[in-house]
Amino acid sequence: MRKPSYWTIQILPGGGGRARSYRVEKRRAKAAGIAAAVLLMMASAFVATVLGRQDAVEQLARYRAENRQLITSLQAMERRSGEFSQALDDLSAREQRFRLVAGLPLLDPDVYSVGVGGPGGVPAATDEFLEVAPDLAREAGDVVVDIEQLLRRADLLGSSLTEAADSVGTQRERYQRIPSIWPVASEESWISSGFSHNRLHPLLGLRRPHTGVDISADFGTPVIAAGAGRVTFAGTRGEYGRLVEIDHGDGYASRYAHLGRIAVRVGARVGRGDVLGEVGVSGTATGPNLHYEVLINGRAVNPVGYFLDGYRR
In the chain, which residues fall in CATH 2.70.70.10? Predict the structure, then answer.
């Protein structure tokens, strides 16, 4: 017996009404089912595509917002980097002058421009970041490099300034020891007889070297140390009369003669400007004055060449 080529669909009303029957060819029913399934799949794919695009749009919007924030931050960093660079330029100029004062050689400017990099130097941008904002990624890398260079400059400047400060401290202590200030504590004092290799002695009437300078001042005027050092002699010695001698180190020594009174003892440490005694007329002095000598490695030199500006009379 041949199978029927159609389906019979009966609809029975719930209220006991008349039943209705419909015939649907099997071939058409199957075609309609396939078409409905295809339409459903297409609709699902369309909905998924729309939702995916919406997610992509939202994600892109988030990236753009983040990029705007990053750009603002980078611009602020660039401004601060520029300000920091200018401050370092000013500090570098002062550092060069400071090194000159400290007697240190100047650093080659190329030292401060050495590049940075290598492992751990500049963080690599992620592939996602490079794909979304390649220009921003490159700009961020440039800013990081600039900051690394500035930090290197700051570190080098700090080391250089520390070296200069240490040198100045050492030099300052040495300068304090060099006999270089006016040894009489009075504005009313002057050189009455200078350094000479062939001076006529006022008492002996003989020509002989004058190994220092005579500074005239009132009797009792304080005599002060021209530089820091240690007292190696304090007493009476021949033509010098009452004499104080100081060893300043580095081969420097000074003598203070014709004193009326001595105020220090042998072995005492004195600072620049400390009182050693008073102007007098001891020894071969013809009037109240200080005979002052400066010696380098035991050889007398002209003291005038060692007076600091403002201390010469």
Answer: 190-306
